[in-house]
Amino acid sequence: MNALIALGTIAVVVLGTILFAVASVRRIRMSPHEYIIGGRGFGAVFLWVLLAGEIYTSFTFLGAAGWTYSFGAPAFYILAYGTFGYVLGYFLLPWIWSYAKERGLLTAPDFFAARYGSKTLATIVAVVQFAAVIPYVTLQLSAIEIFLKIAGYGTVNAEFGAVLSFIAIIAFVFATGLRGTAWASIVKDALVIGALLFVGVAIPLHFFGSPAVMFDQVLRAHPNHVVLGALTAPKGSIWFVTTVLLTGIGFFMGPHSIAAVYSAKDAGVLRRNAMFLPLYQLVLLLVFFAGFSALLIAPGLHGPAADQSFLTIVVRYYPAWIVGFVVATGTLCALVPSTALLLATASIVSKNIVSDLFDRAHDDRARLLVTRVMVVAIGLLALGLWIAYKTTLVSLLLLYYNGVTQFTPAFVFGALSRRTPAWGIIAGIVAGIAVALALALTNTAPFGCNPGFVGLIANVAIVGVATLLSKANEPAAIATGSTLDPVP
Amino acid sequence: MSTKPTSFRYVLAAIPMLALSLAVPFVNRVEPRVLGLPFLLAWIAFWVLVTPLFVWGIGRIERRW
């Protein structure tokens, strides 16, 4: 009975969100520009909803609470890095937007093709983004499985449920495009605030009387849990600083974030969002409260069980309709960002690989069709890889940032210098990713630094040297030709 | 405002960015508690809360709003 109520709530919320979004976009005439970047017409509020919708994923729910439970203070980096990224974004995003608008750019690799005049570079970026997005999507799938397992009270096959809901979301992206994601985000963002007020405020009040008393008890039971370890310790202070720098610098570098930047109506929309989005970050405080509460109420969990700790409390102490509501919100937090990721990756394959590299599907109808087919293909590929390969949540996200952050120097040097050559950017990206992965895979952390950060240093050094070595104003850096789309 | 406006906006940007990154090892402590929060968490939450004011100030200097 409980499983029926909880799963029923989830089904109603997810299907309701999909229908709401489909109904909202049904009168829109589709073209690749409309489908991929919303016709570059999103205003400040609509973009705010979309960005909040795709930035705050199921990771916000599970990973942050899980880390708070298992490690304590290192989880606070999640609150800090987004805010760091927004301040940087205030300066960088309007420039990227104007550059993309003037040249009719459609995808993130288009920027590299246009700015550095190199198809090789654009192809490398396309491949790296493709490889980085797949773990990000599998992360969301793992989250859905966890949610459904909890809502099913152990009576249903959660993996099957995750596959089913993901197939629904593939069909949704096929039909609606970026504007559909933005409409679905409206429902998702509203539910997130409601659910977090419950788990982050109601639970601490119910069990401890106030967050202050909760922290008193955390300090008594785990005195070192709310501060960072020694300077160079694993997840110590240096790790914290370098992780905030790495993930803050890479904050808008995901292909779906660049697509959201392109979708803005004007540059002012992006500046306003950089100003107001930090306030949304504050909901993460409630996630930390939920994680600390769980540590006190249900101690002794490890690994994936720690990620689910606060949900375990909801299941144990609250009625099924509340479980359904909280879990439905979490499921939307996995599905809505997945739509943006699928769409961005599919558009990169259709534009930068099929059109630019293999010289096919140039007219609008063909490109729209190829993009939609790719949504299905990439969705199914991610689904297959997920079934074969699962791991814990946060480590996958750091893998994602290790990859995409390496693109930031290309945007910064692209904005500040006309001399940076394409080969320098290529060498920087390749070296940055190689260093980051080598350190991460061998579990080496020089001075406690985040491996991706060391990679980024190597990357910036190489791009800097290449810029100094190259002759001023290489015309190839600006000439672009066939990679451009007409502005609609 | 003693610095000229064009570079002062970078100072305004640098303050919250440094507070949330390089400053963290120096505020890595439990006491004093602020509204019940351990000091480290209160520090980070405070800077997240006031960052919009800094960004607003940068926009004013650039005459964006």
Explained architecture:
The complex is a heterodimer of chains A (488) and B (65). With 488 residues, chain A is mainly alpha-helical. Chain A has a single domain (2-390), classed as Sodium/glucose cotransporter. Chain A has helices at residues 2-25, 32-37, 44-55, 58-70, 77-103, 108-116, 119-151, 158-176, 178-208, 211-221, 237-249, 255-262, 267-281, 283-297, 304-307, 309-317, 320-355, 364-388, 393-404, 408-416, 422-441, 451-469. The longest helix of chain A has 36 residues, at 320-355. The mean pLDDT of chain B is 89. Chain B starts with a helix and ends with a helix. By secondary structure, chain B is mostly helical. The relative contact order of chain B is 0.17. In chain B, helix 1 runs antiparallel to helix 2. Chain B has two helices and no strands. Chain B has helices at residues 5-20, 39-61. Chain B has one domain (5-61). At the A-B interface, helix 5, helix 10, helix 11 and helix 13 of A face helix 1 and helix 2 of B.
Poorly predicted segments of chain A: 474-488
DSSP summary, beta strand count of chain A: 0
Q: What overall geometry of chain B do the principal axes of the alpha carbons give?
A: elongated
| Major pleated sheet of chain B | none
What features would you highlight for this structure?
heterodimer; A: 488 residues; mainly alpha; Sodium/glucose cotransporter; 76% helix; globular; B: 65 residues; 2 helices; elongated
